[in-house]
Amino acid sequence: MTDALAEQIRRQQSRDGAMHDDDFNHLARQLGRRGVDVEAVVARLSGLRIAVPSWALGAGGTRFGRFTQAGEPHSVEQKVMDVAAIDCLTRANGEISLHIPWDRPDDPAGLKECLAASGIVCGPINSNTFQDGEAPNDARASYRYGSVSNVWEEARARAVDHMVGVIALGEALGSRALTVWLADGTNHPGQTSFRGALDRTIDSLSRVYAALPEGWSLYTEHKPFEPAFYSSVNPDWGTSLLIARELGPQARCLVDLGHHLPNTNIEQVVATLLHERRLGGFHFNDSKYGDDDLTTGSIHPFQLFLICHELVEAEREGLLAGHPPDLMIDASHNVKDPMEDILQSTEAILVAYAQALILETGVLAEARARNDATLAQNALQGAFRSDVRPLVCEVRRRKGGALDPLAALRAAGYRHETARQRGFRRATGL
Ligand SMILES: [Mn+2]
């Protein structure tokens, strides 16, 4: 299939390349007049890598149902194949974020070879302590009442063992980080002690932390509610930071854009975690009401830009040295083709990042120094309202990607072909 994609990339280049050059050159002249070093922006964008979550390659669902799409991947190898196809078009997605046990490979060495042959890196790996899978013999080892925070040691030990096993698997596959999102929480006031649950969570995660190899990170991912609807054990960035600090320097916080209550100032959350040198990474998606897992940038593109602006500012001040945040998509696709949605999310992140990179920093700095809120707003919106898509496209073109990834995917008949090869059947999961 990569041959068909490469053919489409070539066709687009010969058909539309001159038009793209016109657009890019025009934008580059505009930016040059504003004092932007366009080549430096191109170089910075070229270095961004946005991981694709393995679970987002198939149709998602809701608790009311799930609608299978033809050609969905059924095995982890097929998921790697889809990520390689996406990366062939974007040259920005050469990393997969696996989820265990959904992606538990029968043959880790074989999967490592598959990753290497596809040119895909194993990004942060995710544990799962929110589904029991095969019901444990010991009811006290069930996650029904929580995992790492459970009052029963059997459940806590099972969760710790699982995460330590995920680290070992990740190490075999070349990953460098474990992402821990906890479903632990309560549905009823008084159900458990808040302080006791936090104590047990920190104690359990300390046991996981002790198994981290050198150079690894452990990411704590907060979320205010769901599946528990009264309390969550790691509900917000403050608790997440507290847990990370308790664990040690290899623990950092992961910000999932959808894991905030409505109207939370997420860019300020990001800035505070940067200030504390504890920002581990992102799960990008968008949200209207809650953890909606909608296409990144489809609801609040200005918020996405402001988050990228915090990253760019911090990077210029040297705060990201040694540990640039891991960028991952975490979305769910109920209607659109998952691969098309990932292409759109990737484009949205790159566009927002490019807008942040072209911001006239001198104008903003001067406005801030004079408490001139009017010109500060103009500096931000001047960047946000710039159409930088030719710039993002130029970065992709120089790396051998498609001028228009979505059109190339469709024209290559990728989904038609995977539907033929893989058939139409419900993807297996837990
Ligand atoms: Mn997430």
List keywords for this structure.
430 residues, alpha/beta, 9-stranded parallel sheet, 48% helix, globular, binds manganese (II) ion
Could you please describe the fold and organization of this structure?
- This protein has 430 residues and is of the alpha/beta class.
- 48% of the residues lie in helices and 10% in strands.
- The protein contains 15 helices and 11 strands.
- The strands form 2 sheets. Strands 3-2-1-11-10-9-7-5-4 form a 9-stranded parallel sheet. A two-stranded antiparallel ribbon has the order 6-8.
- α8 links the parallel β9 and β10.
- α2 packs across α13 and α3 crosses α14.
- The longest helix is centred in the N-terminal third of the chain and has 32 residues.
- The radius of gyration is 22 Å and the shape is globular.
- The mean pLDDT is 96.
- Manganese (II) ion (MN) binds next to loops.
Shape: globular
Overall SS class: alpha/beta
Taking pLDDT < 50 over at least 5 consecutive residues as the criterion, the unreliable ranges are none
The amount of beta strand, in percent, is: 5-15%
Q: Please estimate the helix content.
A: 40-55%
Tally the helices: 15
Number of strands: 11
Q: H/E order of the elements? A: HHEHEHEEHEEHEEHEHEHEHHHHHH
Radius of gyration: 22 Å
Could you describe the largest sheet, including whether it forms a barrel? 9 strands, parallel
Distance between the terminal alpha carbons, to the nearest Å? 29 Å
Bound molecules: manganese (II) ion
**Mean pLDDT score:** 96
